[in-house]
Amino acid sequence: MIRYLQRRRTKKVIKRLSPLLMKGYGSRDYYTVGQVEANSIELCKRQKQIALALFCEYTSLKFDSDKEKQAVAAIRQDIANDYF
Prior knowledge:
Blueprint: H1 2-25, H2 33-39, H3 45-55, H4 66-83
Helix pairs in contact: 1-3, 3-4
Pfam family, one: DUF6559
InterPro entries: DUF6559 (IPR046689)
């Protein structure tokens, strides 16, 4: 059940942000952290983490704590397992 909710939340983030990022910045492999954060203002904290995990290169992310770094790494791993 939890995986189902995670997939739904991920799909919602993809549906909202993909068109905004492509329209504003063009099609590219990765977007900068600033670009993603500027377009994810209305998202909740968890959805912002998903957006950063989806659209930003992992090496460009700066984390305040180890816990936050592990959370984004886990999200990236879940997305990789679910979609690729």
